[in-house]
Amino acid sequence: MTTSVTDTATDPIFGKISDITNGTINPVATSTKNTSNQMGKDEFLKLLATQLSHQDPLNPMDNTQMMAQLAQFSALEQMNNVAYSTDMSKAMNMIGKTVEAFDADTQRILVGQVESVSQKDHTISVNIRNSENTLVSTKLENVDYIQA
Questions:
Q1: CA-CA distance, 18 to 54, in Å (whole number)?
Q2: Element at 117 (helix H, strand E)
Q3: Is 74 strand, coil or helix?
Q4: pLDDT score recorded for residue 94
Q5: I want to staple 112 with a disulfide (CB 3.0 to 4.6 A). Which of 6, 76, 128, 131 is the partner?
Q6: Which of 13, 15, 24 is nearest to 55 (CA)?
Q7: CA distance 110 to 129
Q8: CB-CB contact of 115 with 135 (8 Å)
Q9: pTM
Q10: What pLDDT, in 10s, does the model give residues 2-16?
Q11: Residue 3 CA to chain centroid, in angstroms?
């Protein structure tokens, strides 16, 4: 019994099944429909498993190509981890310092002392005590100036 895949068959995350089976999809360069619009480990592994399960047994995927894709993804993940660690260190070093930041809620510049740092879903925020003695949380990327 032979199962054929047509160009009209699609996967909700990866698109045309024929693109996966004929190797024209690049898992590192392909964006998925997740909330951050970036491919994570789970999406990459799902794509790799789909590629392997739908490959032509008479013309299998080149091991070199697969290893290159895995190496690219691993390197990208390591760079993201280093960038996140650097940002977290930068935020932690702001504690006790006076900063200027854009407050997205009020659409104004906020000046105050950083009291703490928080993170949620890989987004780092600094918690600033403003001139009204209110603790305001803003994303690290909104901090423009750090006073010595």
A1: 9
A2: strand 108-120
A3: helix
A4: 94
A5: 128
A6: 24
A7: 9
A8: yes
A9: 0.58
A10: 444 444 445 444 444
A11: 36
